[in-house]
Amino acid sequence: MPTTQKRFDQLTAADVMSRDVLMISHHMGLRTAAHLLSQSHISGAPVTDGNGLCVGVLSTTDLAHWAEGEPGGRRTACAMECVCSDWQVVDMDRLPEETVDRYMTPDPVTASADAPLRDLARKMIDAHIHRIIIVDEWNRPVGVLSTTDILAAVAREPPSVGNE
Questions:
Q1: Distance CA 8, CA 112 (A)
Q2: What angle do CA 5, 138, 120 make, to 5 degrees?
Q3: Judging by beta carbons within 10 Å of its beta carbon (0-12, 13-18, 19+), is residue 158 exposed, middle or buried?
Q4: Residue 48 has pLDDT above 90, yes or no
Q5: Would you state the pLDDT for residue 46?
Q6: Which residues of 31-48 are buried (b: 16+ CB within 10 A; e: fewer)?
């Protein structure tokens, strides 16, 4: 995360977003995508089409929904054996072989890099999400803003006068 000297109420997505973004192709196999998320130590990533446009997001929540048999994923006989908690898939070999576009969350929440951080934090709370995909004017991912990025910005905020 970039460091900045701005006050929290002046920060934008560009000031704190992660710029090194793992992007997942909508035609990638779910097993491969889950492996990439695990190896990258992240819980979600933007899904792009053949033109690099953001068409969805794949997260551990989507994998949990698959395991629970909710929309977006079919529950299979192995689902309960694959999951040891609501968010952790243990045996990736038991994941379905279909492509990511079958399990991703379509139409993710996106924003521009100049969007105020305070507004994006509210958007995350309202939508019950943990990341916003930051896109350019052509809807191509250029960054990811996560709840961890916002928390880090709050932690770096200098104490206000009288609260030192």
A1: 18
A2: 40
A3: exposed
A4: yes
A5: 97
A6: bbbbebbeeeebbbbbbb
Model confidence pTM above 0.85: no
Q: Which residue has the higher pLDDT, 83 or 138?
A: 138
Cα-based angle 20, 23, 28 (whole degrees, multiple of 5): 155
Tokens of 164: 């030192």
Say if residues 139 and 54 touch (Cβ distance below 8 Å). Answer: yes
97 forms beta bridges with none
Sheet bearing 110-111, strands edge to edge? 110-111, 131-135, 141-146
Question: What is the pLDDT, as a whole number, of residue 62?
Answer: 85
Mean pLDDT for 89-96 is 54
Separation CA 61–CA 151 (nearest Å): 20
